[in-house]
Design a protein that fits this description.
alpha+beta, Glutamine Phosphoribosylpyrophosphate, subunit 1, domain 1, Rossmann fold, 6-stranded antiparallel sheet, 29 helices, 19 strands
């Protein structure tokens, strides 16, 4: 696990500035505290920070081929590297290390750009072909590892994190207004956009080739939701889910440093823990955290799983004050705003886990693959809701829901009911993003200054979801699978995995996600949708697969997820920070936000007449972002 940086000057007579490369690399020290490495050749610079996991003594980067004409810097893990190494040795290649990184340069010699087809892992890498004066960069299929890039007036620049990229003096720090609007809607910035104008995120499952002063991107893999469905019984499907997940977990247990499992007490992480116990051949370490606020605490389920599996379980209880102390640290953890408050417990869990191990497996991806989010069932309910007469919906149900008393508890009934009716009458894609996100189009028109709205029309702000709505009715893909695809290609990679990468890397902890093994993903996509969402029961086939192996309480309990008492904090402990950050004079100087609407929103929330937790937190995270205009 590492972080990478690099740049290529357009003027080949202008040597790469080593001071700039070292400054870029220093900005991602947290990603690889063990060592650094550089390649400098005329106008080209490559750099990396290393967190040593595989081949501790021999895996230093950059790594080259035999004659030093191909060089690579790499972030991630290639889980099938032992088999790749044997294949390459049989083909006559000479490998001087036992690291996964070295296989990349030799695969390039064999297969060129198609080397990515042979990799099973999570990765962001950059490969320089000196003979052809050609750069290849690539990102893993599901988007576990990040990669940013930009072409400036003087150079092509790339890095694992935005905070490293902006250390290059040619990179401008101008806010991308389109990305701001997308962020306010989704609570994250979807690829290929970033919050800086002219800077891009490489999309998952894409590679980029830079040569002769130009770059182009190519997709090398995709999530196929409209392929043939397997004709398979539930019993056989459950057995195959177990077998394939067990193999994905086994591959991710390879490590030369201590390893454990992040255990939330949900079925996804618990399934990974059960498979790890079966495959490891030794007692597995598991890690969880607990909170004082009961509606947000899941630690009892994690303890129940750990006791049944017989793991070496570690738990740390955090006070509300300890969680609040992280809030001012969030800008240090993130290089782009993120409106997901679960970043805080994810970072706390990563810090705690890193005290004991260097690598941890987690359950990310289970919700998107097996229809685990409550929104999928809500889409089926929305179809019934839309069949009711409009006068009854607008004249009876919606006013009754609006009068529900406001609660600050995690996923309270009033919170869910109000969000449901707010989105239920829309087409599926927009409905989904209203339920999952923050500021819908009407709210953005009140929040943002006219010039911001004029610069970014709604049709390009919401193009990701509008594309799904245009397909709805004509597509062969089931509605639920359309929404699962929307989540897998946007929410999973740009919110969930972004959060996990930054939180774990800030603690120098490597996390691995067996559910995101691409061969496992390809199998699950072939299962009928009814095996994922049966009626209103999500994760149906996964629950069937794990029945008898995990406690029934864990299998049958509703989806909860990491949450933070943001609604309560805004009224209390964070009130001063929120009011200082949203000070009308400050927002007017910034020139993006309507301060009157923000003040109205704060008053309604503090008086308890509305729950604006998501709106306030999402905006707060943007305003605390270091590169926001202040």
């Amino acid at each position: 696990m590492c972080g990478i940086i690099g740049f290529i000057n357009f003027d080949q007579t202008h040597p790469a500035d080593q001071t700039v490369a070292r400054a870029m690399n220093a900005a991602i020290l947290h990603r690889g505290p063990d060592e650094d490495g550089f390649y400098f050749k005329q106008h080209v610079a490559l750099g990396m920070r290393r967190l040593s996991i595989i081949d501790l003594a021999g895996g230093q980067q950059p790594i080259s081929n035999e004659d030093g004409t191909i060089w690579v810097v790499f972030n991630g893990e290639i889980y099938n590297f032992p088999a790749l190494r044997e294949h390459l040795l049989a083909r006559g290649h000479q490998l001087k290390t036992h690291s996964d990184t070295e296989t990349i340069v030799h695969l390039y010699e064999e297969y060129g750009d198609d080397l990515v087809q042979h990799l099973n892992g999570m990765f962001g890498f950059a490969l320089w072909d000196e003979r052809r004066q050609r750069l290849l960069i690539a990102r893993d299929r599901m988007g576990e590892k990040p990669l940013y890039f930009t072409q400036t007036q003087t150079a092509f620049v790339f890095a694992s994190e935005l905070k490293a990229l902006v250390e290059h003096p040619s990179v401008e720090r101008r806010i991308n207004l389109l990305a701001l609007r997308k962020y306010l809607q989704y609570e994250f910035v979807p690829s290929p956009h970033t919050m800086l104008a002219g800077v891009h995120k490489l999309l998952p499952a894409h590679r980029l080739i830079f040569e002769r002063g130009q770059w182009r991107t190519e997709r090398y893999w995709q999530l196929n939701y409209d392929g043939a469905r397997l004709k398979i019984s539930e019993e056989d499907a459950a057995e195959e889910v177990r077998r394939r997940l067990r193999e994905a977990v086994r591959m991710r247990l390879v490590s030369d440093v201590p390893l454990g499992v992040l255990l939330s007490g949900g079925i996804d992480s618990s399934s990974v823990a059960e498979m790890a116990c079966e495959a490891a051949g030794e007692r597995v370490k598991t890690f969880s955290i607990a909170f004082e606020e009961k509606s947000f605490d899941e630690s009892s389920y994690a303890r129940q799983v750990a006791e049944q599996l017989g793991t070496e379980h570690y738990e740390q209880r955090f006070t509300e004050r300890q969680m609040l102390e992280i809030v001012p640290e969030i800008p240090r953890l993130l290089d782009e705003p993120l409106g997901d408050g679960s970043l805080i417990p994810t970072f706390l869990l990563s810090q705690f886990t890193r005290q004991h191990v260097t690598v941890a497996l987690g359950g990310d991806g289970g919700d998107e693959l097996f229809a685990g989010y409550p929104t999928y069932g809500a889409h089926r309910m929305a179809r019934l809701y839309q069949m009711l007469p409009r006068f009854f919906r607008q004249g009876v149900i919606e006013p009754a829901v609006a009068r529900l008393p406001v609660s600050t508890e995690n996923l309270s009934f009033d919170f869910k009911a109000k969000r449901f009716v707010r989105g239920a009458s829309h087409a599926a894609g927009m409905r989904h993003t209203i339920w999952m996100g923050s500021y819908d189009p009407l709210q953005q028109r009140e929040l943002l200054r006219p010039e911001v709205l004029a610069a970014c029309p709604d049709e390009i702000v919401f193009d990701e979801v509008l594309a799904y709505d245009r397909l709805n009715g004509d597509s062969k893909i089931d509605l639920i699978e359309q929404m699962m695809k929307l989540d897998a290609t946007h929410y999973l990679s740009e919110c969930v995995l972004f959060k996990v990468d930054r939180a774990s890397m800030a603690a120098s902890l490597e996390t691995r996600a067996p559910f995101l093994d691409h061969t496992f993903v390809e199998f699950v996509l072939q299962l009928p949708v009814e095996m994922k969402l049966k009626g209103l029961t999500g994760k149906y086939i996964l629950k069937k697969a794990m029945r008898g192996r995990l406690p029934d309480d864990v299998i049958d309990r509703p989806k909860k997820g990491f949450g933070m008492p943001v609604a309560k904090w805004v009224k209390g402990e964070l009130r001063n920070l929120v009011h200082d950050t949203f000070a009308p004079d400050r927002l007017r100087r910034q020139g993006l936000i309507n301060p009157e609407y923000v003040q109205k929103m704060l008053r309604e929330h503090e008086r308890g007449v509305a729950d604006h937790r998501k709106l306030i937190w999402t905006l707060l995270m943007f305003e605390l972002w270091p590169l926001a205009v202040s």
